[in-house]
Amino acid sequence: MAIGKKHKEAAALSSSSSPLLPADRKALLLLLLLLIVLLARPAASSDGVRYDYRAYTECKSHPEPALYNGGILRWANKVTDFRTEDDGNYSPAFVLYNMSAATVYSFSCWVKIDRPTTAHVKAKILTLANAASQCLGTALVRNDCWSFLKGGFTLNSASETSVLYFQFAIYSLQTASPNASTISIRSASLQPFSPEQWNQHREDRIQLNRKRFVNVHVADSNGSRVVGAKVAVHQITRDFPFGSAISRTILGNKLYQEWFNKRFNAAVFENELKWYATEPYPGKEDYTVADQLLQFVQANDAVARGHNIFWEDPKYTPAWVKNLTGSQLRAAVSGRIESLLSRYKGDFVHWDVSNEMLHFDFYENRLGGNATVDFFDTAKRADPLATLFLNDFNVVEVCDDLSSSADSYVSRLRQLADGGVTFEGIGLEGHFGKPNIPYVRAVLDKLGTLRLPIWLTEIDISSSFDPKTQAAYLEEVLREGFAHPSVDGIMLWTAMDTNASCYQMCLTNQNFTNLPAGDVVDKLLGEWQTKETLGTTNDRGSFNFSAFLGEYKLSVTYLNLTAEGTFSLAHSDDTKHINIRLSPSR
């Protein structure tokens, strides 16, 4: 069933930088209403609806049922199949009324095309009042099966009338004619959530994935349960890795070191492990600064990520390496891996093997398509205990960079897996402008289906925003990342340079007084750590509580009897039971 015909007038208006005249807006609206057969009206309430984390990365012969039974698009699921013709510009699909700026919208659907063989399809939302549009999700779509598109959006201002439409983004076959292409949509769903609901979903996931219930049972020397014993629990360490980039400026700076150690249990070196830093000239290796940074991290019981072995961007490739070809280049890259990983074997929990390879291909362009496969194979043999990562930008940050869409990332992983690479980790840099939080969650949902560790590796907010706005956006990103069940660690890209500046965002000034972003970090670290827990055993001799994962000290006293010990909380759906026996001291 046709939803709409080609509509070049709307395409031109949506991409124009000049404002629409009232008459133009009215004409556009009337024309769209004539073209669009099915209309959507947001439901009045979504009370009780829980966020659905389901996502799919495999192409299926038949689409799955719509999430949320379609949400405010539930009427669309009564249509067996409908299509929107696309001329490469603009094709309206759904008209949406009375959209709220105070609402978070989660969108999903299944998509198929008739030609070309493979193409990226974008879902976008157009606000008719100001002709502003934004990308809300993408999918790498085929003509022989159905692909899952998941995304979301919030609006900057309320909209009486908006259009949710689909658009071809990249044609895999240059000979394909856009005019002959059709985008088919099934199982469409648009589910609204209030900010309170969205935040509650986060809190629920934190309880499920970052915390665990504990039951302390206290008995006397005869094994009888003790009622009224005093229990004190204190968290020693956090299980979830939360850290920041550091650079050589932290060395010898006691104030900086104290400030860092008070907050973080993980670190990554900003530039000091990169090839241009450790071997600026052929055969002239210098690991002095990297060694000192590693010593600082290890002395404070933090974990360190290895960043990076190779950077695919030629801009950051050592100048002398750019001049090598063939066997010379192969020898150089083999020497790089062997030197780096033999020196630091077992010291770094991760290695970013190929950095930003979704955007750049310096090594594969010169050494062939198997170069990355060889890098991973050599690195795994050199340091079997390290987790090997790809790492790239604009995966969660923006919707429009199709080089690093979730599906592009998955496609590259599968391509390398076919070559023999066993992947162990997904790195998402996270250099954000204004974050689209429902889109961030949707991407994490999709990548999470691969069941690999996901780390947010370089989180910051653009310096184009004032410090308070940076802090507000940072808080949203960190809350979303910490709550998501597929995220295993978060790193901030906030190393301070010699002039007290940072790449995009600093947490503190040169006197180590927090800036607004630093205050956000401290607030969240306080929320994500168990406060000292005090209580007494009940009439069954037990004391129950919920605590964040990590290491704990436990003290139990009753009359003149005392017992002390430690315990660990690792992730599990089961309650942790701890049995304490009080015995008179001898």
Automatic annotation (TrEMBL):
Domain of life: Eukaryota
First and last residue of the signal peptide: 1-45
InterPro entries in UniProt: GH, GH10, GH10_dom
Stretches assigned to the GH10 domain: 227-524
Transmembrane intervals: none
SUPFAM superfamilies with a match to the protein in the record: (Trans)glycosidases
PROSITE patterns to which the protein is assigned, alphabetical: GH10_2 (PS51760)
Gene Ontology MF term list: endo-1,4-beta-xylanase activity
GO BP terms: polysaccharide catabolic process
Keywords: Carbohydrate metabolism, Hydrolase, Polysaccharide degradation, Signal
Family: Belongs to the glycosyl hydrolase 10 (cellulase F) family.
Name assigned to this protein: GH10 domain-containing protein
Species: Oryza barthii
Biological classification of the source: Eukaryota, Viridiplantae, Streptophyta, Embryophyta, Tracheophyta
